[in-house]
Amino acid sequence: MMKINTIYLKRVLLYGGCLLFPVFVMAQELGQSLGSLDVRPSLVNPRLSLPTQLTQVHVVSPGEYFSPPLVADIPDDKYGDMVRMGRNIFVNSAKYAKRYAGNGLNCSSCHLQEGRKPHSGPLWAAFGMYPMYRHKTRTVVTFEERIQDCFLYSMDGIAPTLDSPEMKALVTYAQWLSKGAPVGIKLPGRGFPIVNRSQDLDSKRGKIVYETRCEICHGEDGKGKKHLQGDGYMFPPLWGRNSYNKGAGMQRIKTLAQFIKGNMPLGASFSLSDQESLDVAMYIWLQDRPKNPKMSWVMDFFLPNMAH
Amino acid sequence: MWLVSYIKHFLIAKLKNASTWSALLAGLMVLLPLMIVMLFPFSSSLDQQYRLAGERLASNGSRDTLACITCHGRQGEGDFVMGIPRLAGLHPDYIKKQLEDYARAPLRTRVVLDPIARDYIKTPRTYGDLTVFTPGTRHNDEMNVVAKTLSPEDRHNLALYYSALPFVATPKAYDFETLERGEDLALRGKPEYGLPACVSCHGPNGQGFGAVFPPLVGQPMVYMIDQINKWQTGRRDNDHLSLMKNIANQLTDGDKINVAAYYSNQSYSVNVE
Q1: Contact between A167 and A161 (Cβ < 8 Å)
Q2: Which of A56, A102, A167, A218 could disulfide-link A157, Cβ–Cβ 3.0 to 4.6 Å?
């Protein structure tokens, strides 16, 4: 009697599961796409312009953020030369740090305006905070080691050695930019702004955000746009062969959303809502890019978008 | 394996056969000149015709309007003193869009401006999905009248004509301090206020990028300052995502002069062999 019962139970579970599983999945999908509080983004044609009254403006009071020294005030000595070299590497890494840079990005593609802009990982706010504990490596890292990680992941290249002139120049530039900034204090504008998640992310909404806000500069295919004359990118690639790899910090949806909220579109910072930033970050996260150098090819194939 | 060897032998037999090669050659000899004839000169001669029509319209005008050259110069070089912009070497799609926006303005709809300056960062954003996207407008007493008389074909012809004209900028001299401040703003912007650098969109030398970002170098100083003023007052509102409006709203009068002086100090040439 017991034996028959278990067989029957097994069959019910097996066939019932097979029948019900697609229904379960469909129900989940329906629930995601047709939430009662969900507002569908309007599928408008390519927009011409936004009316003035509907634009958010990020109000900055004078003196809110640290202002680094002017480029015109770089001294004319050996130290000044090192600062200038560091600045060159920073804004044009593919040319001045050619042996270490691996893709089309420069340092200033993420650290905007030559590492000066608040909310885009400014150097003047970072320099005084190192050495610090990093959760990514579970160790205390120095400023130089942090730069090495930038080259390895975000620039998909080779980590410069600690004694290389490129590394010295970059550290000198960062030190010059943060002259007058306090050491060991979290300055306003440090890193990226905070983004809060209120509902599930949706890459379909993110695609619409990308097409309306990002596509005009970064291109329909997200591969960026090259300079008309000369090498390098006018607008950096967001995915593809010449973009950051899967080990980069920007491959975390949260980090990317934070960067987008605080800096993009250029000139209209903080104009996207938290949800829009997260959605478009997810859309970018799903795209193809170089593999994480610390991950095997097999893992890269089966876990295509794992960050860390 | 038998299948592979079968295909291999079949191919070798085919390639050894002289008739296959002659058929291929004959086909190529017919197709290649056809392709060249069909694709290459056909489009360029059409463009040439459009350009000629544009030149006729620009130099003679039409029944309803003045000729373009009365203000914009014989070669589309503009007027530095009067602040009339150059048209030579601009992107054709940019010219087309501007003419469309000139023809649209002034709008009939009443726009009510908010008299109280709001702290927008503290305003909850509830209209994210309900935004109405108005087409762009540009106000200019002369150009609004002129652009209304142009047909879409006229705009296309004029755009093609002016985008192909050569232009050489004459650098203007200014004092060192103005240029240095202008350079700082052009290359680095004002990061502590979230104001991006001019070069980040308008190209590394301000020569413009694509149809969306027009050139700054080679434009008269008066014109550039006037445009920023118009963005601030809302008389020009035809930029993508109101990016330039946000930027113009953060520029002081000193910034405008400095950066306009910096760009009229640069040397530049386009469409010149």
Answers
A1: yes
A2: A102
Under an 8 A CB cutoff, do A265 and B209 touch?
no
Q: Could you tell me if residue B22 is inside a domain?
A: no
Determine the residue among A37, A54, A264 to mutate to test chain B binding: the one whose Cβ has the most chain B Cβ atoms within 10 Å: A54
Residue B1 has what pLDDT?
Answer: 63
Residue of B137, B187, B193 to mutate when probing chain A, most A C-beta within 10 A? B193
The mean pLDDT of A292-298, rounded to a whole number, is: 85
Residue B88's domain comprises 43-270
CATH number at residue B170: 1.10.760.10
Walk me through the domains of chain A, giving residue ranges and CATH numbers: 71-177 (1.10.760.10), 192-308 (1.10.760.10)
Interfacial B residues in 191-230 facing A (CB < 8 Å): 191-197, 200-201, 203-204, 207, 209-210, 212
Identity of the residue in A72, A118, A266 whose CB atom sits nearest the CB atom of B200: A266
b/e per residue B65-88 (b: at least 16 CB within 10 A) = beebeeebbeebbbebeebbbbbb
State how far the Cα of A154 lies from the Cα of A93, in Å rounded to an integer.
12
Task: Please give the share of chain A, as a percent, with pLDDT higher than 90.
Answer: 56
Question: How many whole angstroms separate alpha carbon A249 and alpha carbon A253?
Answer: 9
**A177-227: per-residue pLDDT in tens?**
999 999 999 999 999 999 999 889 988 889 988 988 899 899 999 999 999
Total domains, chain B: 1
Q: Which long-range contacts (CB under 8 A, 24 or more apart) does A227-235 make?
A: A227/B203, A227/B204, A228/B203, A228/B207, A228/B209, A231/A94, A231/A95, A232/A92, A232/A94, A232/A95, A232/A104, A232/A106, A233/A104, A233/A105, A233/A109, A234/B203, A234/B204, A234/B209
B14 lies in some domain = no
Query: Looking at the predicted structure, is the pLDDT value of residue A55 above 60?
Result: no
Residue B26 placed within a domain: no
**How many angstroms separate the CA atoms of A201 and B259, rounded?**
42
pLDDT tens, B217-263? Answer: 999 999 999 999 998 887 888 888 778 888 998 899 999 999 999 99
Q: Decide if B30 is inside a domain.
A: no
Residue A44 has pLDDT above 80, yes or no: no
- The pLDDT assigned to B43 comes to 63
